[in-house]
From TrEMBL:
The gene is hyuA. It comes from the Bacteria. It comes from [Clostridium] ultunense Esp. Keywords: Hydrolase, Metal-binding. Its EC number is 3.5.2.-. Its cofactor is Zn(2+). GO terms for cellular component: cytosol. Belongs to the metallo-dependent hydrolases superfamily. Hydantoinase/dihydropyrimidinase family. Carbamylation allows a single lysine to coordinate two divalent metal cations. The modification N6-carboxylysine is found at residue 148. NCBIfam families: D-hydantoinase. It holds the Pfam family Amidohydro_1. Residues 49-405 form the Amidohydrolase-related domain. This is D-stereospecific phenylhydantoinase. InterPro entries: Amidohydro-rel, Hydantoinase/dihydroPyrase, Metal-dep_hydrolase_composite, Metal_Hydrolase, Metallo-dep_Hydrolases_sf.
Amino acid sequence: MAIVITNGQIVSSKGIMVKDIRIVGEKIEDIGIDLVAPNDEIIDAKGFFVLPGGIDVHTHFEAEAGGMVADTFTTGTKAALVGGTTTIVDFAEQIKGGTLRRALEEWSKNATDKTYTDYGFHMTISDWNENTSKEMEEMVKEGITSFKMFFAYEDLKVDDGSIYEALKRAKELGTLIGFHCENGDIIDRLRKEAIAKGKLEPVYHMETRPPSLEREAIFRLITIAELADTPIYIVHLSSKEGYDEIIKARKKGMKILAETCPQYLLLDKDCYLSKGKNSFEGAKYVISPPLRDEESKKVLWQGIKDEEIDVVATDHCAFNYKKQKELGKDDFTKIPNGAPGVENRYKLIYTYGVTKNRITIERLVEILSENPAKIFGLYPKKGIIQKGSDADIIIFNPEAKSIIRAENQVQNVDYNLYEGLTQYGKFEYVF
Ligand code: URP
Ligand code: ZN
Ligand code: ZN
């Protein structure tokens, strides 16, 4: 017995078609006309979009602060499914002095048999040495397709020489490294200066991480990547300043892939002050990079439309406002960095991208599913609805309307960045 989805508008980056999809087990057995056989279960998708399941390539489940965890792999991937995302790629983090192997084992232990979605890992490199270089090869042989390095955060950042060597190694191995681009050394100094002046409220998180420091780190990365002669992936791009550097390098022919997130497209730095400078509410928006200005939002949307930004992921890194964000009540540098969003990505980008005519539905599928699959080695098993692919399919009713409320969410966290925003769409089915 099969499931046959009929009458729906099947979307890919290339266009829309109305055909039957026949699913057997976990695979798409066929796509065509009149595929229904006796005993098949029929799902009539008339009026709905039939889309490849969303792929969120930037999550941090089980992020810990104050000895507590908000979203686990179980609650986080359940929220992902509710939000139309059927695959996530999380970051397994090497600790300084530790190995990549240890990180992979730890993260696998947290995730194996505990997720609602399919999942994979990027390996975060925080300690570059000969052994790490050897381990990169082992990991690639085992199916890891990507790594990540940081220009910021004391416990994660690496120096420029390490980045150069790691990029050369990535070239040899045919793998990709993603980068968190903010100049961490200068941020450290700016934070110290702010504290010395008694500037302790959440808004100073944003003030001490200006867009020029994202621009500088992106420029430095591009310079290093040019010498190493290998592609790079920039995670959570937030600013016009950073974007402009990417465009300059792309014009020179460099292969630079860029990701942004819904928060940088929909929210801006006023959020830090929405309840007044002395309110702690701004802690909800303490993410790195921080929220930027209106101009950056416009530029990022245009970049998606112009195919200069390849992926929209969430950087879901949930901490409760109570007890976790509150760790920084008297000092913004102690607020854990990160915010939830895995549940909201699909409908937000549909609502504020497609229904506002900023992007087409085809482009939405490309940035939320097809490109992530292509970049991270999942395509065409995932990222497209075609014969032989995994039956990771979402049936999307574009007419439904709702208001985002933390009290209704599945992600296990006590607030939502988009509280009160209207969103369109309903996932009638998620396979
Ligand atoms: O604030 C954020 N983004 N926290 C998660 C870690 C990262 O930088 O991606
Ligand atoms: Zn980051
Ligand atoms: Zn992140």
